[in-house]
Model the fold of this input.
Amino acid sequence: MYSLLHNKIEEIRKTKGVYPDKNLIHSFVADLYHFIFIKDIWDKKKFNEEIVIFRERFCEIFSKEVEKTNVSLEKLADIFFIDLISIADQCFEDAHAILAIDPAAESIDEILHTYPGFYTIAVYRIAHSWWRNKMTYTARIATEFAHSQTGIDIHPGAEIGRSFAIDHGTGIVIGETCMIGDHVKIYQGVTLGALQVSKKLKTLKRHPSIGNYVTIYANATILGGETEIGAGSTIGGN
Done:
């Protein structure tokens, strides 16, 4: 019996590629979030020292994905840490958008520390940078880590504009080819999904497009790659 089990496990292992360690990715994302949004660092020298450590950790994680990007590991690190400036800027716009819509939110600090919607958006924006640079496996692990923490499922391939607000958030699903404009607000239980699931549709746009200044209330379901929600629309709950 044990011999058969060993053979089966070996068979499974042979189908696996060489990928980054999932736990390393989880801790990197969590620590990077804390470093950007939570930790108090006023000394520039200390800040630069910590960035150097994050860069070393980045290179350790992505050394196993670099072959499929046709870009050197050092170049990928440069791209990401330059992207991080824009990512942080967009995330603070997201935080202000949440503060503007939620009467229960008392401060930006509260949103950074306690709001699962903001946390998931921030992780998505980090992972989306990796996705665009063909580091797709690591990007998926990052967003699935956020999904496991918050119940909000955003595929790293989705295109999401500025000042994006998620309130409550549990049960939200945003698919890979979804396109979301600026100043969009989404509440819990919303699905932006595909009309059908079929492998042959992989290269097609399967998920809806949401225009600027759209509000989608709780438990609304919007499906299909040809579906477009026009700018300024409001989609009612359920």
Observations:
- The chain has a mean pLDDT of 93.
- The first helix runs from residue 2 to 14.
- The chain has seven helices and twelve strands.
